[in-house]
Amino acid sequence: MLLLSLFIFSNVLAKDEELINPCAKESVPLNNVLSHKSILLNNRVEINNTEMFLVSYLDNRGDVCYDKKYDVFFNISAGAYAFDTNTDTYKDIIKNTRFALHKAKLNGKNRFEFFDKADYANYIKRLEIQGELRSSVNDNFKGFELFYQPIVDADTGRIEGAEALLRWKSDQYGFMSPVEFIPLLEESSLIIPLGRWIIDTAAAQCNEWVKIIPQFVMHINLSFVQIAKSNVIKDVIENINKYEAGNEHFVFEITESIQMDSNIAIKRVLKEFVDNGFLLAIDDFGTGYSNFEYMKDKMFGILKIDRAFITDIHLTDNNRILVSFIIKMAHEMGVKICVEGVETKDELMAVTKLEADYIQGYYYGKPVKDVEFCRMIKQQERIKR
Ligand code: C2E
Ligand code: CA
Ligand code: CA
């Protein structure tokens, strides 16, 4: 027999009854062990009807209820799992219904979610990866490595710097893209201790490469979490001061995010970077929603135009016009431009014509290991002499 297990959560306890009573006419509350606001119903009503009821209930209710002196914003979330009395254990039912409720809350509350097997498998995989990341960080950053991608001066075509890019090999899943594992490091705040290691490793490397190319500049990515939740400027100064290369040899790349917008505390941290002689770059320019907010504060010396605008730029009028406008605007404000993701000669010619200052992309080189990068710049400097 197929039954429906339902957890409902509201932030206003008194409202639970009001919601549950109408949809639970035929159901028997089994227990409320999970928390005083979660209720498990053993519901024999039609699954589709229950879903329709909850969706319309959640859609139609006003979300403010007046409670004594204050307005209380009322929200309610529900998760359900259709279970089979022959195969599912009590533990499965609790676990899966709880997961569905968790998803409803995670997806913005005031909503209803059914348990989804694929979603659950994905969630478990993320937890496993996060566990592995934690072990790697605790085991002296085992499995982490920095790769370096050349950043080339657009006028001379010569390497003038590098972007340090994190790599990680998971024991279970092998090499994984940073796009996949960095959000997990951020979620768990592991990016804070790892960020210190990144800054230290990249600074040590930069110190060596300045000896080969005196004007060499190392670009280091900073996560919003490092800026918001740690004393990042202290970490940066402590690690960089260990080496001879001055602060002017470092660029910190920051991707704009909703949380950063108009955040005064964050702006104060960014200003400390500038006051200490570091350069700041806005990363992935054009993909966010309010990049111009940052431009007006004059804290960023470099703007990195995202690959999305550069791919096939020689064939796409709109992208060319946009990039040309961004470059002109930046130059008038004294900001340098680095274009990302240049892969072909045609793209290179198009962006050079638009007077970009720096080029980064597979055309000049993919991110490589430190030894390989060192070999590249030594060879470049040999040819120069
Ligand atoms: P990002 O900062 O925008 O870095 C540039 C990404 O574009 C890198 O991907 C690089 O390999 C890739 N790329 C560069 N040129 C080309 C090209 O011509 N074609 C194509 N298709 N791709 C190109 P990667 O290394 O996979 O890194 C992805 C993202 O992960 C980075 O994007 C950055 O947001 C994040 N990330 C990487 N390392 C770190 C780190 O040390 N700290 C933090 N917080 N984030 C990092
Ligand atoms: Ca970057
Ligand atoms: Ca970028």
Q: Short description, anyone?
A:
With 385 residues, the chain is α/β, with parallel strands linked by helices. It contains 14 helices and 16 strands. It is globular and about 80 Å long.
Task: Describe this entry's structure for a reader.
The structure is a single chain. This protein is an alpha/beta fold and 385 residues long. Helix content is 44%, strand content 24%. The chain contains 14 helices and 16 strands. The strands form three sheets. Strands 8-9-11-12-13-14-15-16 form an eight-stranded mixed barrel, surrounded by five helices. A five-stranded mixed β-sheet has the order 2-3-1-6-7. Strand 6, helix 3 (90-106) and strand 7 form a beta-alpha-beta unit. Helix 6 packs parallel to helix 8 (232-240). The N and C termini lie far apart (82 Å). The model is unreliable at 22-46 (pLDDT under 50). Residues 163, 221, 253, 283 line the site of one calcium ion.
Defining traits:
14 helices; alpha/beta; binds calcium ion; five-stranded mixed β-sheet; globular; eight-stranded mixed β-barrel; 385 residues; binds ligand C2E
